Amino acid sequence: MATKDEVSQFLKELKSVSAAGEIFFIDRQVNTQTLAELEIKALERKAYIEKLVLEDYSEGPLDNDQYGIEPMWVFGKKVKEKEVYIKITITALNVICISFHTSKYPMNYPFK
């Protein structure tokens, strides 16, 4: 588990990189289905990610064997009364959102 300072630093980097670059969303059926079920647009999804705070942290950094070598971080956010599981990583130029879907299990928030 990361410390509060490590999570805060990650979130600061997330905001900086997303402001300068782009957030790429992995096109998985579960992610697309969640957007439809929650009736939110892609731009709204981006806004939820950009508004993540320390208390939304769930786990990480996790080994990344899918999208480069940078670690993955997991956050959760309430969206229209549903808990959404958000897994993201940051490259040198972009933020990659691997997961943005309704959580399958209750999430743990160590800093809430």
CA gyration radius, whole angstroms: 13 Å
| Helix proportion | 25-40%
Q: What is the CATH top level name?
A: Alpha Beta
Q: What general outline do the C-alpha atoms trace?
A: globular
Q: What is the typical, i.e. mean, pLDDT?
A: 93
Which structural class is indicated by helix and strand composition?
A: alpha+beta
**Termini separation:** 14 Å
What is the N-to-C succession of helices and strands? HEHHEEEE
Q: β content, as a range?
A: 25-35%
Number of strands: 5
Strand order of the largest sheet: 1-5-4-3-2
Largest sheet: 5 strands, mixed
Instruction: Give unreliable regions as ranges.
Output: none
**CATH fold-level label:** YaeB-like fold
How many discrete domains?
A: 1
Instruction: Please report the number of helical segments.
Output: 3
CATH architecture verdict: 2-Layer Sandwich
Characterization of this structure:
- The chain crosses the membrane at residues 84-102.
- InterPro entries: MqsR_sf (IPR038493).
- Keywords: Membrane, Transmembrane, Transmembrane helix.
- This is Toxin.
- This protein is of the alpha+beta class.
- It has one domain (4-102): 2-Layer Sandwich (YaeB-like fold).
- The protein has three helices and five strands.
- A five-stranded mixed sheet has the order 1-5-4-3-2.
- A hairpin with a 2-residue loop joins strand 3 (72-79) and strand 4 (82-90).
- The longest helix has 17 residues, at 4-20.
- The protein is globular.
- The mean pLDDT is 93.
Which keywords apply here?
alpha+beta; 32% helix; globular; single chain; 5-stranded mixed β-sheet; 112 residues; MqsR_sf; YaeB-like fold
